What we know:
The protein has helices at 9-51, 55-61, 78-92, 124-138, 144-164, 167-195, 200-205, 215-224, 227-231, 267-280, 296-302, 307-331, 334-348, 354-381, 402-407, 421-430, 434-449; strands at 66-67, 110-121, 463-475, 493-502, 506-509. The protein is an alpha+beta fold.
Amino acid sequence: MKRRGSITVFAALAMMLVAQMLFTLLEGARHIEIEKVLQMNTDSVAESAFADYCSPLWDTYHLLGMTAADSSGSFSLNNREAMLRNLTADNLGSKGSIAMLPGISLLTAEMVDAEFEPYLIMTDRNGRVFEEAVCAYMKKNLGYEAAKTVYNIYESANDAKNNYGDGDKSIGDAMDALEEAAKEEEENSSKKKLKGIGGEKNTKDAPPEPEVENPLETVTEAKQNGVLSLVLPQSAKVSASRLDLSRAVSHRNLNMGTGVISDAADWYQKVLVNQYYVNYLNCYTNSDGNRALNYELEYLIAGKSEDSENLRVIVGELLAVREASNMASLVVSASKQAEAMALATALAGATLNPLIIEVVKYGILAAWAFAESVLDLRTLLSGGKISLVKSELDWTSNVHDLPVLLSGWSVAKECSAGMNYSQFLSLLLLMHNGEKLAMRAMDVQEATVQKNEGYETFQMDHVLCESRVSAVYEYSPVFLGFVSLLKNGKGNIRIQNTTTYSYRQGKEGA
């Protein structure tokens, strides 16, 4: 007798419910795994987008930035957002792919929307974003202690400039004092003649007094001829490159990012940024001729359109720094003070007025410091090194030989442990406004990148430094189609996740 299998309606319904529960659990597990995969994909495609940085900007200036522009050269994120979607399609396939077939992943999804928001552009906050990007790179190349040493040198130079940086006034006061001494001497001579003292007989018999060379007049005349001609030989070749400032970053209206940036930098960040300038921007003594301006460091400080004008400004500022440092050396040297006093007495001693003699002495010291500074700049511009504050052994000039030294081509003694031209420029950079320096740095970087083929429309205010990437995905359920209790079992499911990538700080998951 054959037995026939049978099942009750209740058992059949129970099995259906169990099956639907299993399919639901399978879809839930799939959803959890897809969420993980999609977050990894968001991180991956964001990194891929930011890995497509501007190559000439990195190769020349070691600065990372992702360009966001359309085919016309206008700022646009559409191409970058499309790039994220295309990369996702390559990574994950399409939500419409048929699952359950051999070789087909159950983890397919489609990025239906992508957005860079908020974002920071390199030029935001007057170059503050640029400075932070530079700091992120330089922290790997310049330690805290080395930066502190640089800053201490700057403070020393700045103190000397504040205390002894008014040489022109000292020379002017000394010239006025000599005029006053001449008037006093003339008045005294007239009075003696009226009283019958010091007749003509005595003056005829007296030997003529030796003429004393006045260094104040020598230096005043030299300054009127221009300092550039004093420190550069006539055979020196000065760059004729120029920059169109009307189109430069620092002079035009810029695109702006939507992100938030921190406040001004502290001393450590300032040193890092300025050391970056010295390391990667050209100057008079270190120029490869492949930049839009050959004297980039000089432009950062002077801001003129022509290399020659920028060099002229820098020579004047460096001369002021060297004058202050050399004056600091003179005022602590007893022997040089004595030489200046002897010369001041010879020039104005007939008045017997100690106040006038003292003023003339300080004027002579200022003139001496100027002459020594001219010799210093000649050495620096020829590639040599000079001590920040000179010792007796480092000193070159003699107060009695200033006319010969300034009219000829004498140079200062080189000091192997001293600072070169670009290092002195780093001190000048620290004395100037950081925002202006950053914007001018981007002026020259933009113009240089534009010289490369294919980058003619490159702009620094099209360069992203940081952004949050928000992605929306859709995928089709696989197992929910077997769950009859769900009305929307065959509808698409959406997942949104974000990630942040920054050249200032690296990648941050969100």
